[in-house]
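Much of what follows relies on a compact textual record of a protein's fold. Each token is a code from a learned vocabulary of local backbone shapes. The record below shows the convention in full.
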Amino acid sequence: MHEKEAETGPERRSDPFAELEALAEAAKPTFWGYLGCELAHAERGKAIVSLQVRPEHLNLARIVHGGVLASLLDNAMGLVVILDCPGEKTVTTQLNVHYLQSAGLGEIRCEALLIHKSRRTLTMQGRIVDNKGELLAWGSGTFRRVT
């Protein structure tokens, strides 16, 4: 085998972490980027995504819109699924969100964890905190592998 082939062999191509930066860059023109998500940390089974809350993320009460929080949970959990199922197509099949406290402008962070994996589904949980560590929302989601 040539050196070039060794660098691009199956074990090299299947490493999801080697392509994480490229994935984050590719996501910029999607809803991820439109929302303003930033990857803070990722490892197998866990990801942390941050969001700098802007005025357009607020509702008329001047607090973060619930849809923004739900989207942040879905994006962070979805990232964990992508890392755990590289090259596979997956979709969100269920998302539960518990809104616990409101927030305004400033940074918020979502930590997502894989809590169960079967042959066809992955079950996730996530929590969103503000820059003081106050829990804003908690959620769970189920993702299905699509064939």
